[in-house]
Amino acid sequence: MFRQLKKTLMATLIVTLALGQTLPAWADPADTLPDMGTSAGSTLSIAQEMQMGDYYVRQLRGSAPLINDPLLVQYINSLGMRLVAHANSVRTPFHFYLINNDEINAFAFFGGNVVLHSALFRYADNESQLASVMAHEISHVTQRHLARAMEDQKNSAPLTWAGTLGSILLAMASPQAGMAALTGTLAGSRQGIITFTQQNEQEADRIGIQVLQRSGFDPQAMPGFLEKLLDQARYSSRPPEILLTHPLPESRLSDARNRANQMPVVVVQSSAAFYLAKVRALGMYNSGRNQLTSDMLDSWAKGNIREQHAAQYGRALQAMEAGRFAEASQTLQPLLKAEPNNAWYLDLATDIDLGQKKNADAIARLKAAREIRTNPVLQLNLANAYVQAGQTNEAATILNRYTFTYKDDPNGWDLLAQAEAANGHRDRELAARAEGQALLGRLDQAITLLSSASAQVKLGSQEQSRYDARIDQLRTLQQRFRPYEKM
């Protein structure tokens, strides 16, 4: 991954109720919740959830230590969409995000947005365990647990309704303050909310384990991972953060184990991408700790072929991170020779080349890659290599196509702004920076930048019309988001 994309956006996000692009699917009777006396629709429609999700995810980008690593983002979204494809009652698109946080946790919120902490890679022994956490969060979304909780809160204590929403938003910006405010709000309503939350967790387990099995993963992974969490809680003075937002009584573990035992026994091998993602997450996003240990790499070096390759990739990654580029290149070379089109290896090889100022080698290797026209990770790498080589016209050509297709990726807009600045296209630079600010929820700044871009071009030109039209769109978005800003 090129160096510019390793920057993360700082702060933390925790939401008390853990909930998470596919086409809607009809509900399967097995995945339908028992009637809890509320449809959730009278409080929040699907359209409202989507709108709130859009608002909140922009706040997330602007305030949380989001990992924008293209390879890791691609991996967790690919894994997530595999699960979503086997879920029922899917009413919204799904998007998966990774936060650089050493506290094990996962949660979801309006509009199918699922957030994973990077610590999950450290604690998950295999891909099925990681998938079990994601299936649980997906099930919170498909069963609309957050909307149901808010419906219940509104009906039982109308005066705390706005406070609940406001506290959730506060938790996005300041975890400690937000959790304290939300705890106080709920405590002031009624004790029954705790039971309701535990019920949601068991339902998400029940639905999630079905999704897990249908997706081809080991259903035993769910009780296995829950047991790991309980063990941590037993032998630690402070329970894992995930247990503060996901109640885990012994009955929940027993229920998950009983359900898994009723399913066919399967042997599931973790994918090569899982091992490479785990190495990358531990080696590059470790909150200052040395989590990619020699013991782990030594153990993998004696394991199956996927583990062996991941161990070698990990050693090359460690050398590159330490600035030992020649050693990194030598370690990576056998892997790259065996799989010259592997995006994980190509990405690391690009970093090594650029670290050695071998820009031409990086460009040549990426242009020769078989998937250069279809893999967004490789396209970003090539664009960055062009920027580093001073070939910014070529970079802008790639990035204009990229940002048209992947409008919600801050990486593309950041690189495009760099390329257009180098090309001397001030209006295009400002417009690209505006889109980046809009993704962070900073709509005022985005409008200011676009106004400046509009002033840079000829009066009445097509470019000015385009910039002015975008300003109008952002102002409409501001109006749409205004109610949430007041919560």
Automatic annotation (TrEMBL):
Known cofactor(s): Zn(2+)
Cofactor note: Binds 1 zinc ion per subunit.
Residues in Peptidase M48 domain copies: 74-259
Superkingdom field: Bacteria
EC assignment: 3.4.-.-
Any GO molecular function: metalloendopeptidase activity
Pfam name, any one: Peptidase_M48
Active-site annotation: 137, 205
Keyword tags: Hydrolase, Metal-binding, Metalloprotease, Periplasm, Protease, Repeat, Signal, TPR repeat, Zinc
Chain sites annotated for binding Zn(2+): 136, 140, 201
Keyword field contains Signal: yes
Any Gene Ontology CC annotation: periplasmic space
Signal sequence bounds: 1-27
Localization, UniProt: Periplasm
Function (record text): Functions as both a chaperone and a metalloprotease. Maintains the integrity of the outer membrane by promoting either the assembly or the elimination of outer membrane proteins, depending on their folding state.
Similarity comment text for this entry: Belongs to the peptidase M48 family. BepA subfamily.
Cited HAMAP family: Protease_BepA (MF_00997)
Protein name, per record: Beta-barrel assembly-enhancing protease
Taxonomic source organism: Superficieibacter electus
